Amino acid sequence: MPTRQMCSAWRSTNWPVKLILVHNHPSGTHEVTDADITFTDHMLKVGKLIKVEVLDHLVITETNYTSFADQGVMDELKKSGLFEIMGPEKQELEQFKIETEKKRAIKEERLKVAKSLKESGMSDEDIKKHTGLSLKVIGGI
């Protein structure tokens, strides 16, 4: 199976909201395979669930590329019901999403508190004790 690489915009404490999939084939061709389409469909559905829009999937070579969006493949896959997440799996993933969002919100609040404490002159060690954030995170504030 071809090596897959997912590229997304740099993020700090925020989730990415858009994603472009990029990979190459060991054969050196940029032709789309059934496996590419299936993988892309899976990623579209997962992206929909976690609210990360998959914009395109590029198959690249040193001199050329194929864009799923340019060929209309992305639009077709967005319309398909194939690989829709249903039943208990969807509930589990929704719960995971909620828990992840709660953790993100807690960390964001801790960062706000740490920033305020740092501005008031508190040492990084004391900020770590009060917020639970690492010294590396606190040093980057």
Word description of this protein:
With 141 residues, the chain is of the alpha+beta class. 50% of the residues lie in helices and 16% in strands. The protein has a four-stranded mixed beta sheet, covered by helices on one side.
Structural class by sheet pairing and helices? alpha+beta
Q: What distance separates the N and C termini?
A: 42 Å
- Main beta-sheet annotation: 4 strands, mixed
Beta content: 15-25%
Portion in helices: 40-55%
SSE diagram, text form:
Layout: E1 4-8, E2 18-24, H1 34-50, E3 53-60, E4 65-67, H2 73-79, H3 87-119, H4 124-131, H5 135-139
Parallel strand pairs: 2-3
Antiparallel strand pairs: 1-2, 3-4
Identify the notable features of this structure and list them briefly:
141 residues; alpha+beta; 4-stranded mixed β-sheet; 5 helices; 50% helix; 16% strand; elongated; disordered N terminus
Gist of the model:
This protein has 5 helices and 4 strands.
